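Lab notebook, design round three. We kept the backbone fixed and only want residue identities now. Task for the bench partner: fill in a sequence for the structure below.
Input structure tokens:
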């Protein structure tokens, strides 16, 4: 039987999982280099192996998210979301909590630049995107 989780916990977990754990910083360089490959690992205790990513604007990023825990996505799912500069993280996180069926990412949001799927323990997902200017 899955543990019971309150809506407040889901909202906070989603907020941290989506946004607070990862700050994506870009350097504003004119010429982008080759693709950069980044792997982020998260566990069942909301601990991640990095808290900042730096790439060049315009660079192709191949990002892999690995859930090294054991809990299923319904109990402790992780995803990664890159938002446009200036996005209110608190508001986005609150809105995201309403979109469980969409991996806790608001549908049609113009604030989302890139996002992975929601994964559970033992899973991984990879996306490719161009770092914004």
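Proposed sequence:
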């Amino acid at each position: 039987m899955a543990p019971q989780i309150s809506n407040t916990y889901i909202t906070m977990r989603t907020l941290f999982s989506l946004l607070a754990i990862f700050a994506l910083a870009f350097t504003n360089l004119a010429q982008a280099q080759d693709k950069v490959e980044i792997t982020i690992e998260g566990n069942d205790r909301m601990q991640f192996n990095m808290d900042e990513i730096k790439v060049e604007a315009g660079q192709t990023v191949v990002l892999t998210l690995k859930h090294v825990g054991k809990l299923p996505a319904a109990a402790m799912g992780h995803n990664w979301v890159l938002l446009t500069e200036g996005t209110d993280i608190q508001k986005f996180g609150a809105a995201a909590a309403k979109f469980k069926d969409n991996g806790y990412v608001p549908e049609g949001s113009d604030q989302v630049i890139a996002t992975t799927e929601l994964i559970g323990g033992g899973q991984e997902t990879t996306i490719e995107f161009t770092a914004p200017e």
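Keep this in mind before ordering anything: The chain has a mean pLDDT of 83.
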